[in-house]
Amino acid sequence: MDQILLILGTLTLGGSAAVFLLAWAGRSTRARYGAKWRCWGWLLLCLRLAVPLPLAFQGEARAPIQVDVPNPPAVVQQPTAPNSPGSESTPVLPDAPQHGQAQPGPSGEDSAAPPPISPAPGKWRSADLSLILIAVWLTGAAVMLVWNGAAHLRFLRWLHRWSSPVDNWDAVDAFNHLGDQLGLHRRPRLLMCQGLKVPILAGTLRPAILLPQGKITGEELGFSLLHELTHYRRGDIWLKTWAMWVNALYWFNPLMWLMVRLVERDTELACDEDALRLLSPQDYSAYGQTILAAVARLQDKERRVSDE
C-alpha cells in the first residue's frame, strides 16, 4: 500500500512540474514554439499519468527471501582433576538435540519456544493510514468518472432526441469539399441540432459535427466547418478525453484541473494554426471574426445559464 502511495505521489510531483513547464512555454515562447508542439507535450504527459497502478504492483511482486541460519553449538570444557599435573582439558561438544526436542537453557532446564513477535503498534497505524488514503483516492476518482460518464450519457440522449440530418445542401456541399481538401477518408456525421449557439464536434466513438438550426450560412458556415473538421483530423477530442481521465485520477492536485483548461486552450490555438494554412491571407480576418463571434455567443449562453 505504501508503494502505491509512493508511486502516486511521484507521478503527481512529476506531472505538476510538467504542467508548470508547458504553461510557461505557452506564455513565454508562443512565437517560437506553437500550440501544436505543446499539444504533443500534453499528450505525452497524459499517457504517462494515465495508468499509475501497474507500476506500483511491480515493486510488490518480489518478496525478500529469508534464510534461517542455526547458531553453532556451544563448546563445553570438561573439568579435570586438580591433583593430576600435566593433564589437559579436552573440549567436548554437547549432544545435538533431536528434532522436536527442547534444548536445555543455561540453568539446565528445558527452555520453551520463544513467543511469536507481534508487530509494533506504529506499524499497524501506518498500514491503516495507507488504506484510508487509498480508499479516499479511489472514491474521489470514482466520483469524477461517474459524474463525467453521466454527463456524457445525458448529452447522448439529448443528441438522439433533438438532432436530425442536415437538409441544407449548401452545408453538405461545403462539408464534402472541405473533407476532400483536408484529405479525410473517414469523416464525422453532419447533423443539425436544436438549442445550439455554435457548431461543435462531439463524440469519441461516433463523432459528429453539430450545426445550429438555420443560423449559420455563407462564408461563416464554411469557416465553422473548416474549424471543426480540422479538430477532427487532428484528433483533439481524444486528447481532451485523456486529459479528463488524468484529471479524474489526480483530482486532488489543483494543477491537473489547470491542465484541462490549458489543453482546451492549446487545442483551439493549434486548430486555428492548421486551418489558417489552408486559407489565403485575405481570409485570415474573416476567419478570425467568425471564431470570435462563435466564442462570444457561447460565453453569452453560459452567462445566461449561470444567471438563471
Brief description of this entry?
With 308 residues, this protein is an alpha+beta fold. The chain has 9 helices and 6 strands; from the N terminus they run H-H-H-E-E-H-E-H-E-E-E-H-H-H-H.
The largest beta-sheet arranges its strands as 3-4-6-5
Quantity of strands, as a count: 6
The first-to-last residue Cα distance is: 46 Å
Radius of gyration: 35 Å
Q: Helicity level, as a percent range? A: 55-70%
The run of helices and strands is HHHEEHEHEEEHHHH
Measured by DSSP, the beta-strand proportion falls in 5-15%
Shape: elongated
Discrete helix count: 9
Unreliable parts:
55-61
Write up what this structure looks like.
The chain has 308 residues and is of the alpha+beta class. The chain has a domain of 205 residues. 60% of the residues lie in helices and 6% in strands. The protein contains nine helices and six strands; from the N terminus they run H-H-H-E-E-H-E-H-E-E-E-H-H-H-H. The chain has a four-stranded mixed β-sheet with strand order 3-4-6-5. Strands 1-2 form a two-stranded antiparallel sheet. Strand 5 and strand 6 form a beta hairpin. Helix 1 packs antiparallel against helix 3 and helix 1 crosses helix 8. About 2% of the residues have low confidence.
